[in-house]
Amino acid sequence: MHLASLVEMVESGFDERVLLGSVTAPVTGTDFGRMVRSGASTLPGYTSLVYAGENHPLLPVALFSAAWAGIPFVPVNYRLEDAHLISLINRQPGALVLADEHTAARLGGIAEPVQLFDEWLVNLPAEAPAIDPPFDDDEIAVVLYTSGTTSEPKAALLRHRHLMAYLLGSVEFGGAGEDEAVLVSVPPYHVAGVANMLSNTFSGRRLVYLRHFEATTWLNTVRAEAVTHAMVVPTMLARIVEALEGADAGVPSLRSLSYGGSKVSERVLTSALLAFPNTGFVNAYGLTETASTIAVLGPDDHRAAISSDDPAIKRRLSSAGQVLPTIEVEIRDDMEQLVAAGETGMIYLRGEQISGEYASGSVLDSDGWFCTRDRGSLDAEGYLFIEGRADDTIIRGGENIAPAEIETVLLAHPAVQEACVVGIPDDVWGQRIVSAVVLRPGQTVDVEALRDYVRHELRGSKTPDTIVFRDSLPHTDTGKMLRRVVLTELTQSLGQS
Amino acid sequence: MSLTIKAGSRLYGATSTTELIVVKTPSAELDLTIGGQPALLDASGRTGATDIAEGHGGGAAMGKRYVDSSGGVELLCTKAGEGLPAVAGEVLQLKDAKPLPASD
Lengths: 497, 104
Fold this sequence. Notes:
Chain A: Keywords: Ligase. Chain A: One of its GO terms (molecular function) is medium-chain fatty acid-CoA ligase activity. The structure holds two protein chains of two kinds. By secondary structure, chain A is of the alpha/beta class. Chain A folds into three domains: about 5-315, Rossmann fold (3-Layer(aba) Sandwich), CATH 3.40.50.12780; about 320-390, Roll (Luciferase, domain 3); about 395-495, ANL, C-terminal domain (GMP Synthetase, Chain A, domain 3, 2-Layer Sandwich). Chain A has 16 helices and 26 strands. In chain B, the strands form three sheets. Chain B has a five-stranded antiparallel β-sheet with strand order 2-3-8-7-11, with no helix packed on it. In chain B, strands 6-5-9-10 form a four-stranded antiparallel β-sheet, with no helix packed on it. Chains A and B meet through helix 1, helix 8, strand 12, strand 13 and strand 14 of A and strand 3 and strand 8 of B.
């Protein structure tokens, strides 16, 4: 199926239901359909619709207008520096660029026409000539640039059939109650931002947008808009927990809080569970190339893990849950052979929603399997544990070491706020383990004490050879650690031995 | 009487408020009825009649999916109505789907 079908479904099923906007400025399914048809009528002749800006209450109108007109929707990271942002947009010749005011002012150098999204919305023709949407679900619906934490950003292609497979496989059409509202604070260029638009429109849940994330605004908006559902990345969860300073969040309307996008620290999660005692927690795992979520740790799993004395069940709190019923998962070793339950290897996925395709070509193998380049393991009951990017694996003296394992131990130390473990070139070991650590405010700890602590929890070969303290560590704005930057900095400052 | 359809085609009950969308179909030509009356591809063909053939009523529910015994045909209900969909006289069955927790 094609996303344009979703517009017709919305008009049929949610004609009177409020799908977008605030309590005071509601947009019903009928309004939405009219805006999308009108929006699409401005797009013939363009090869794609680029969106360069913050979140916007009517952002889904842009995505669905592009779908109705049969051109890809390309949300780009407006937070990139000018030259980088412009080079991404220049990779979309023939596009119409819709931007917010601040971003538009930075796009002087591009050849493509730029319009303010707000002005485009105001000027939508009242009498739009009807367009017959092209219903070919093999067309490209969305182009997303991967965050490029380990390499240059790649243009991931999501076709209509991938996105609809995700919706049909995991969301019930109209499954949300009329009182439900979701607060979106992930940016439009993140796959979760795209998935937010689609799955909430599909389930009939009103979408409320934060233009950009700020913890206090987030909490106030949940209260003001009687928000029932929200999705955050771990950095946002950490900021919310920080802002609460141990108090109850005071958000009785919030039934479900989903987090994902990178690894959450156990301390943040435990504090969050205490601050939101009546909210169900959901951990979602997915990649841009898998059209969003492929594994979910649901509220019942969270409760079971917290209340269990069984270590095997307790540790599931740090898992990504089980894969969706529509997804197949395999963990393979370096020889591409399946490993036993509990053993770590490379995570492979297969299913109708898995795209595994870039502008440069598909990376699916001949049987349709996608190598995530994430390492992980499955327990006996199919709970998936993510250990980090394979490309981040440190090979020290022939032994494969996952930085995440060491980081988890460091983060459990009461003085440690953040930790990044990398392998820098070493003449003797091939690579040696170096950790950059940010201490919690007011805390001090001795390097040797911290090394002893890790050695006690793990073992000698997994103990950082060097630990350095830093005031902060670099992240993408959606909370992913920029390991490349840390690695470069540490390699330069510590040098080859 | 068969209709020409594909994934994404809209179907309207002639004698009920039921509306469906085709999720998948094994062939482009399908003998489709809703409430026992030939399904319409356009809502404007509705006459306001409300007769439902015996065994073809009982209600289609919004958001639910209906499949034939072979699993080749799958329709999704976008508007509830009394009439149930059928292919070549076989009333489609409600597809069991376990909703997952909202993750985004």
